[in-house]
Each structure stands twice: as C-alpha cells, then as structure tokens.
From TrEMBL:
This is D-malate degradation protein R. PROSITE patterns: HTH_LYSR. GO terms for molecular function: DNA-binding transcription factor activity; sequence-specific DNA binding. Keywords: DNA-binding, Repressor, Transcription, Transcription regulation. It comes from Serratia plymuthica. Belongs to the LysR transcriptional regulatory family. CDD domains: PBP2_CrgA_like.
C-alpha cells in the first residue's frame, strides 16, 4: 500500500498548500511529507509542486496527478466498504416463487426474521399454485415439493414432507374408516391440487408402493369442503424451521 500512502500524502499537500499543514493533518513529521513529494517527483521524472507567495501549488502535471489520485483513492475506499458490508449480510433483490399453501406454512413464518438479519436484501415473493415458468418470470429461487421436473436447475433439499390421510371423527363415524388405500375410492375426498388434471396419492408399506389418482380442488375449495365432509390428504413439513442465509 506504499504508493497509495504516497498519493494520499500528495493529495493532502495539494489541498492544504503546505508541507507543514499536511503533516499536521496526517499526524506525521514535516520532513516525511517533503520526502514523499520529492520521491514522487523522482519516480515520475517531473516537478509536481511549485512554491508561490501563497504557499505550494501543483504544476499542470501535479494537478493531473491530484485529480486522478483523488478518484482512485475514493474508488478504493468505496470498494473496501462494499467488501466489508458484503461479508455482513446479503444485498440486492431476490425473486422467489412458491405454492401459496407451502409458503404460508413453511416460508412466511421465518421471512420477517430473515429480512431483519439482511436489511439490504429485498424479496419479491410470487405465490402461485400453477406451473410458473421460472425463466420467463425471472425467478431466482423456487420453493418446491416433490421431484425436480427440469434437470437443468440446481436443487437443494431443505426438508421432508410427511403425507397422510385424515378425516373428521364425524365423517368416519358415518362413512366408515378406510382400512386399505383402495377403500378411499368409496369415500368423499378433498384433494388440494396444484396442477391441472388429477392428483396422485402414493401409499407405501413393506417396500410396496400403490398409487391412486384423484381429482383435486384448490385451497379455497378445500377449506370450505373440510368444514362439512370428506377425508383429506395433507402434508406436514419436517424441515428446518429457520432461515438460511449462506
């Protein structure tokens, strides 16, 4: 950093128009300031300062050096500040997509604390139960469940979803309790579905997996239907309930 220190000394001399005043500002001896300017003149093979009745003033070459050195040191200070701040937290704007129900249960409870820990970060949260095109929508991060349809994306596992079939005691009392997955075909079902068409329910036991297919309803329909009838397929999140910034 020797050259930067020499430039800082030269800038101070230009602004104070005095070796003595520059030495006081820099908290060094006056001879050290004079030697620094002389060293710069020797390195550049040109005179940088002239004495006048009003004190020291830069030559044309000295004025050019002052302006450029001032800009360089300002940019250096800004760069150091950005690097230090960058290590203290995230910054910029992040566009995140998620299914509405998943976001409400998993992401939103931790979002406030995450933003407080990263005050220079802004988040645009897209809540959509359909199939968003991540590229067309400019999405940086998508919170998804299930398998990854597009292998060109990079995925990171955050937790696990435990799925089960549940119903109200009143419903099972009148309709009977299903003992096998196939019995569900005889029941009134409430299926929360993100995609169009039908939804697959998979049941595993002793290494054997069976899949059943049901027509779904959206989140609003599910809430209304649950109040009066049917069994429902739900999931419980078992992932980490804390925001991760790295």
């Amino acid at each position: 950093m020797g050259k930067f220190s020499d430039l800082e000394t030269f800038i101070c001399v230009c602004e104070t128009e005095s070796f003595t005043a520059a030495a006081r500002r820099l908290n060094v001896g006056q001879p050290a300031v004079s030697k620094t300017v002389a060293r710069l003149e020797q390195q550049l093979n040109t005179r940088l300062m002239l004495r006048s009745t009003h004190g020291l003033r830069p030559t044309d070459a000295g004025q050019q050096l002052y302006q450029r050195a001032k800009r360089i040191l300002n940019e250096l200070a800004e760069t150091e500040s950005l690097v230090r701040e960058g290590g203290a937290g995230l910054s910029g704007r992040l566009r995140v997509s998620s299914a509405a129900v998943f976001a409400r249960i998993v992401a939103l409870p931790d979002l406030t604390a995450f933003l407080q820990a990263n005050p220079r970060l802004g988040i645009d949260l897209l809540l959509d139960d359909g199939n968003l095109s991540l590229i067309e929508e400019g999405v940086d991060i998508a919170l998804c469940t299930g398998s990854l349809d597009d292998s060109s994306f990079t995925a990171r596992k955050l937790g696990e979803i435990e799925q089960c079939v549940m119903g109200t005691p009143a419903y099972f009392s009148s309709a009977g309790v299903p003992l096998r997955p196939e019995d569900l075909a005889q029941h009134e079902m409430v299926v929360y579905q993100r995609r169009s068409g039908a939804e697959n329910w998979s049941f595993s036991r002793h290494g054997e997996t069976r899949a059943l297919r049901f027509t779904g309803a959206n989140a609003g329909q599910c809430r209304r239907m649950l109040a009066r009838v049917g069994a429902v397929w739900i999931w419980r999140h078992r992932g980490r309930r804390r925001a991760v910034s790295q």
